[in-house]
Write a structure and sequence with these properties.
Number of helices: 10
Strand content: 15-25%
Radius of gyration: 19 Å
CATH architecture of one domain: 3-Layer(aba) Sandwich
Order of helices and strands: HEEHEEEEHEHEEEEEHEHEHEEEHHHE
Structural class: alpha/beta
CATH superfamily of one domain: Periplasmic binding protein-like II
CATH topology of one domain: D-Maltodextrin-Binding Protein, domain 2
Oligomer: single chain
Helix content: 25-40%
Strand order of the largest sheet: 1-13-12-14-11-15
Largest sheet: 6 strands, mixed
Shape: globular
CATH class of one domain: Alpha Beta
């Protein structure tokens, strides 16, 4: 397919997606087929990364990013949260507020046919809500707050959301700002290029433009990698796909699952080279809500035992990523 035609179709879908979602509930099932419509070309906003596009310089001491708070021996029954707990406060309010992305295929994406957001992260949010409220109708007790990657720590600090479930990599620096659950999904960073590219691995991109989202671990890896690439920054992952299609950058780089989501929107792209990072992902909570972190860790342990984690992974991620077992947790305190 001609790149101009591909660009118009995909960027139109991105615009429709952003315009449609504000707050909605998710639904189960495999990702929908792509819907293509006509629209004027969209500007990606990609620019050479500057100081404001990177996270603040790390002052965190070395740590085990996978280590989280020990879960309780057993979870309270849904709808009967312990008095005085963070979970009881949420139960009394009547709904859980979850910070999510809106255009990450397989994790959190609008199904334009049903008008509902869906994906692996959304199913995690629904399972968390069901554990708090009980009953079969988990969607009745969730409010989604669409956020950018850069907004994640602030919406937790300010109390705008109760939890962020948004493919958020656990790092020692981030653990100074937010509290993380145990690892609920592990991935590594790779490279996405056009099929007609001469790039076969990150090393082939020396001195060339590579797009990623600002304030992420991905942009830090690109800055620090000895391959010597030129990082370009955007606000959202679909912006990187637009930049690649329009020839503004030579490649896109982030974790494999996110890149597979972009590739699914454009068959003229492909992933190349091996992963060059090891990235555990966790649900993020306000630092003060340690009881909620322990509760979430207990829920994740239950999901591993009863097979529900595996069922969610097989439904949403096994297709693009291949088989994976639940990550092994590490606890302290």
């Amino acid at each position: 397919m001609h790149w101009g035609a591909r660009r118009t179709a995909t960027t139109a879908a991105a615009v429709a997606l952003a315009a449609t979602l504000s707050a909605c509930t998710g639904s189960s099932g495999p990702p929908p087929a792509e819907v293509r419509t006509a629209a004027d070309p969209v500007v990606s906003g990609a620019h050479p990364a500057g100081p404001d596009d990177y996270p603040k310089p790390s002052t965190a001491a070395p740590c085990d990013p996978r280590r989280s708070l020990t879960p309780p021996d057993s979870l309270p029954a849904g709808g009967r949260m312990p008095a005085g707990s963070t979970m009881e406060t949420i139960q009394r309010r009547g709904y859980l507020i979850v910070g999510v992305d809106q255009n990450t295929r397989y994790f959190a994406e609008m199904d334009r046919r049903s008008g509902r957001i869906q994906g692996f992260d959304i199913e995690m949010a629904k399972t968390l809500a069901q554990a708090i409220f009980g009953g079969p109708d988990d969607s009745a007790h969730i409010r989604y707050k669409v956020i950018t990657q850069a907004q994640r720590p602030e919406v937790l600090r300010s109390g705008v959301v109760d939890v962020v479930i948004d493919t958020m990599t656990i790092t020692c620096e981030r653990k100074r700002e937010v509290a993380f659950s145990s690892d609920y999904y592990t991935d590594g960073q790779r490279v996405l290029v056009r099929r007609d590219s001469d790039v076969h691995a990150l090393a082939d991109l020396r001195g060339r433009r590579v797009c990623t989202v600002r304030a992420t671990t991905s942009i830090v890896f690109l800055r620090d990698d000895p391959a010597g690439v030129v990082p370009y920054a955007v606000e959202n992952w679909t912006d990187c796909l637009v930049a690649l299609q329009q020839g503004e950058v030579d490649a896109v780089s982030t974790t494999s699952a996110l890149l597979q989501g972009l590739r699914a929107q454009d068959s003229d792209t492909e992933l190349v080279g091996p992963a060059f990072s090891d990235e555990p992902h966790g649900m993020a909570f306000p630092l003060a809500h340690e009881d909620f972190v322990r509760f979430a860790n207990g829920l994740l342990e239950r999901m591993k035992r009863d097979g529900s984690w595996q069922r969610l992974y097989d439904t949403w991620l096994a297709g693009p990523l291949g088989p994976q077992s639940p990550p092994r947790a590490s606890y302290a305190g």
